[in-house]
Design goal:
The structure is a homotrimer. Chain A is of the alpha/beta class. Helices cover about 40% and strands about 15% of the residues of chain A. The longest helix of chain A has 19 residues.
Chain lengths: ~325, ~325, ~325
């Protein structure tokens, strides 16, 4: 890990992609790449984070992200503790800050937090000596998702520089979209967003993206298409007339895909609504890298845990 | 473990007892027997499955089975991750297959699954490179339960050959009954089933069992009596008039037990409804091997995890 | 750990403080003190309890206590399994005793149990060969909480002998109060309780405490003030008119605090209702040792796990 150490990662927390420089993103992606091999070994485990305490504090349910973090922690030999909302003393009325301070008092090293309120991880990061990882804060950011997405594209294309990414769906309510806009833009990609007008946030152009309201136009010549999961409760009138209408206008089908480049990469953060935002033939088709995203999720989270706990700074070998 | 290796276990998955040959069942029971000793050590842990990732994906609640699998995994030093329905993204509408493929993409080695739909583990086993263990699929099979039951009887009687097993209760809705019918029959035992007519599945005789509708007749000369847990919601008219009536006709009491052989073994897969299908004096009596079943459950699950992950094939020592 | 071994800890279980002698409490506190250092290391883990199986069986939700126990177990390298009520087969009607016997049959070493019924841990301890730790039984005892409280005060004052402790709140419904009354009294402290008449149990004087119904009088000259968490559902008429009234009469404010000694220690077992039983300025003020309590909780639980599993008796090094 010498190169990483020299590049000098110094952040305590991973709160969002917006703050990260291109060099920082590259450090994480490089580190993740070097960690990928561990998960392919017969014995998928290294002692790197032995004796570190990592708490996953999830105020929103999640299989995928929590499992990915937990597997990442265990493959690094860290001690992982899960706390989910329903069993939490939050219901007893304790403030989030008190909960976090208590965990800190138990000498935790990393707090991985998902919370419906944007900014929660930032608030905790200021107060806690432990590293804080944002695993999703409201509609704001989901940085490890964007990092795994960037790693997936970089693996296939070598670079993100100059690529055209189109993100399709409910941009307004998507932390995945936000984090990816920041990340891909920082890495030199061009980003377009596509969706119904009610799902495009006002002023999104200021993030440096082009806006389209028509799927085929939006994905024309795209190198990468990222379909967002659509919340079915938003397809009941207020944002869009119906699920069927949504699928017809914004669902990615083989037919629509003809507009994109022949070697386009298809991404989806999951969980997928097959037949709504993405047709099964597309999800399972040759250009889909959806399962690569999941594989890279573990590697990215291993890398982030490693970097934040001082792996690079103090030169812990793995 | 040389003998096992030579015998050549080759299956990737454990989906049911129906498919297993007598030799395969014997391999598992022999391996389990050799693992029992580990749980009696001062340090109950071997490094055999270090660095393996085992996911317990339970779509039905379970203390007993999930805990038994988790303890088995930990005693073999595997990394165990629990996913239970209520916190799962299933609620978000992802298909089971997508959930499983995602776990596979995280490089899991073994998926232990319990699901209300019969055949679910089989479907996943076809698609996933990982080993799949059926921890209960609907009313179909619960193979590790039958294996631990067979181990328990074999320990006490030396063989299952020629023994008379009587299974009592709601045969129609019991995966435990089904798996044990397959297993004990394959091992050369004679199997009877006893229950009210509404709880005996049509055509059960084709599985090679004798049917009785009277408890005392059914357990006459039995070497082993296996009481099934009765679902209380089935004792409200549709299947049986009342709990009290059920206990009177099909509950195993000391009085009823007089019909069985004097050295009969009493089994129950748990959790027990004391005073309904089994009288406390019987459950706690001298011929009860109910707690042996639980002890053997850990050993059987260690053996299955070991065999499926290639222990025997690749000769990993433990 | 030689000194501990010589002093001769011999109990199998930790059920309550009421049974403990002064010497026994001192053994636990001394052991905890020696374990505190582990949690401050770069690698916060020792192999002391490797291969031990510890089950946390919680019939009441808890973040704090369960997490503290789980972290303690993991820092000692034990295998920790969590079972919480909602996913438990208790809902299927199995008796608690059967659940516990089943866990025992899986060869568990320590059962940590929280249950709404007072006396539950005692009942289990009589039946199980495994060590039982009471993590809270109804309104009766919560011994590890009192031990961490005593450790926290002893650290600051050197001794509990002769100190004046005032416990404020709903004494009648507090296992924390009960355990602390026993503990501080055994250690030679003077204990006062303060609360509204409806929350002071009849006959509490027989425990050797002085009763006050006025906050300022009760905390006069106190060395230690322990505020209890008030259950908001008890502030709706039956026990007290309203939350606001409670805060006014029994909430610890800077104003009220003037009556106490200038170097008074402020404690709270958490989770806190800020602005109800304790003002934020007091909770976060210079004399608050509330977070020290949390830190000491991990150390005390490590010590208890160590002592009960025979650390001192058999001389396992750590």
């Amino acid at each position: 890990m010498d190169r990483v150490a020299q590049k000098g990662w110094w952040r305590k927390d991973l709160l969002g992609i917006q703050d990260l420089s291109r060099e920082e993103i590259e450090i994480i992606l490089d580190t993740a790449e070097s960690f990928k091999e561990i998960s392919t070994r017969e014995i998928k485990k290294v002692p790197t984070l032995r004796g570190k305490t990592i708490v996953h504090l999830f105020y929103e349910p999640s299989t995928r992200t929590r499992t990915s973090f937990e597997i990442a922690a265990k493959r690094l030999s860290a001690d992982a503790v899960n706390i989910s909302v329903s069993t939490s003393s939050v219901v007893k009325g304790e403030t989030l800050l008190d909960t976090a301070r208590n965990l800190q008092a138990m000498e935790l090293d990393v707090l991985v937090i998902r919370h419906a309120a944007a900014g929660t991880p930032h608030m905790l990061a200021e107060v806690l000596p432990a590293s804080v990882i944002n695993a999703g804060d409201g509609f704001r950011e989901h940085p490890t998702q964007a990092l795994l997405d960037m790693l997936t594209v970089r693996e296939r294309r070598g670079t993100l520089e100059g690529l055209r990414l189109t993100i399709v769906g409910d941009i307004a309510h998507s932390r995945v979209a936000r984090s990816n806009i920041y990340g891909f833009r920082t890495m030199g990609a061009k980003v377009r967003v596509v969706g119904p007008a009610t799902m495009i946030p006002v002023g999104v152009e200021e993030l440096g993206v082009e806006v389209f309201y028509d799927l085929k136009e939006g994905i024309r010549e795209a190198d990468v298409i990222m379909m967002l999961r659509i919340q079915k409760e938003r397809l009941q009138g207020a944002f869009f007339p119906s699920e069927r209408e949504y699928a017809r206008f914004f669902g990615l089908t083989l037919e629509a895909l003809k507009e994109a480049r022949p070697d386009v990469l298809i991404m989806h953060p999951g969980p997928m609504n097959r037949g709504v935002e993405i047709a099964p033939e597309v999800a399972d088709g040759p250009y889909s890298v959806i399962l690569d995203q999941v594989t890279n999720g573990v590697a990215v989270r291993m890398a982030v845990l490693y970097l934040l706990t001082g792996g690079a700074r103090i030169g812990v070998a793995h």
